[in-house]
Amino acid sequence: MTSAAIHLAGVSKTFDGKVRAVDDITLDIAAGEFFSLLGPSGCGKTTTLRMIAGFEAPDSGRILVAGRDITDVPVHKRDMGMVFQAYALFPHRTVAENVAFGLRMRGLPKAEIAARVAEALARVELSGLEERKPGQLSGGQQQRVALARALVIRPPVLLCDEPLGALDRKLRQQMQFELKQLQKELGVTLVFVTHDQEEALAMSDRIAVMNAGRIEQIGAPAEIYDRPSTRFVADFIGEINLIEGTLEQGQFLSSEGRSLPLPPTTARSGTMVVAVRPEKLRFVAEHDGLYRGEIATANFLGGNVLYRVVCSGGPALLVKEPNLGHGARPPGTAVGIRWSAEDSVPVAG
Question: Which CATH number is 248's domain given?
């Protein structure tokens, strides 16, 4: 299976003449890359995927795959595999017949169809279930059938729109690992739409975070998480502390006048928002804290404990500590809070 690079150049889409679902998006997806479109409902991620697939036509801009302009090419001639949250399996057909459907539409010989169906089902660990109907399968098995049906045509591009959304948490995590592993084995270029931040961080080579039809940031998962470039990205990806203040001669002063650590910056002065992840904060003795406060709540998360600390004369801050088996600090405990300069991330907006 060969993969293909995807290029979107100034792509926009408006519905009903007024709702601008996608607003002048330009991006490059490398051949063989697992690329996720991440964002809240209504941000334009599914519309972008549907334009790549050919289900929607852009109002402006061009879409190229492997250097070929496919902007006006119909869906059935784009040679792409597609998997959706509603698996769209034929309920009256067997597993083998569902997987073979795309090959039959292409007029392949029966012997080749049988061989490729068997190969596809083996890849998704469904060998032996060829004669079952979708109604006789679990949700995870149905998802695998949909995946096999998309992969059996050996597409250079695989498009997935919330394909794991209907699964329970444990099965979803299992399928995340399996889909990522399968994508790398086949080398297919995969474009994945999700609103689940953890899912995107776990699976992707790169992520495009979308908001109101535009791309806020593109980067590797670690970059998106550790170095968000905008307030929206910082707030959307995981828990975050956002501290407003001003920069004065290289010194960051919070809105209540505290001097807080900041890495070297080229900015000279003006208002600023600094983002700090809860796991970067640490508890210290009250008199050593940048902030002093009292633990208001302690949420046990299994491997971690997430605290909400109400600070004296300042904001409420989130602090995450690993669970070391000693139990959570009780609400009402007086604490100090510090963090390192390199963990303060100035963000725009």
Answer: 2.40.50.140
